[in-house]
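Protein modeling request. Please complete all fields; requests missing the sequence field cannot be processed.
Requester role: graduate student
Desired output: 3D structure, token encoding
Chains: 1
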Amino acid sequence: MIELLLFYVFAAILLFAAAMVISAKNPVHSALFLVLAFFNSAALWLMAGAEFLGIALVLVYVGAVMVLFLFVVMMLDINLAPMREGFARYLPIGALVGLVMVVEMALVLSSEQVNLIGAAPTPVAEGEAMSNTKALGSVLYTVYAYPFEIASVVLLLAIIAAIMLTHRRRPDTKQQSIDRQVRVHKNQRLRIVTMASEKRD
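Delivered output (201 residues):
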């Protein structure tokens, strides 16, 4: 009974936070409500027995992605007038997408094979009960080790490409030339200027 009550409490707060994300006028408030939504989603994952997904949601999204969002939103000078004008224009398609998602989630939750409340971790081997995190790690680093390494290489290439695009040479920006700084002579580093002293009245 307590688990069911906690589920409804977390779900209600999650729905409220999700609604405030898209309805708040201040982008910083929207980002903070999204943090609240992530926390409640993590609590629901923990109640469902998916400990790894809950902890990863808090560490990755709340701890890294949302901090980045907050920095970007607070540093940029965002003009809110065009954003508010486009809200009513995209409201029908947004409502349609939301309705489809609600219907899909209702069909999933009404299935007899889904048990979100008090679901026990599925054992990987016969006669050996493993936690969700241990089972996921054992499968990820044994069966799917090569796809995991390929995904890591792809992410590394994406990071390198982003750095190269950021540091590409542009004609309107000043670039630092390390080789010219190293090859400079000592006489070019300091210039002594002789000036006559000023006399005060």
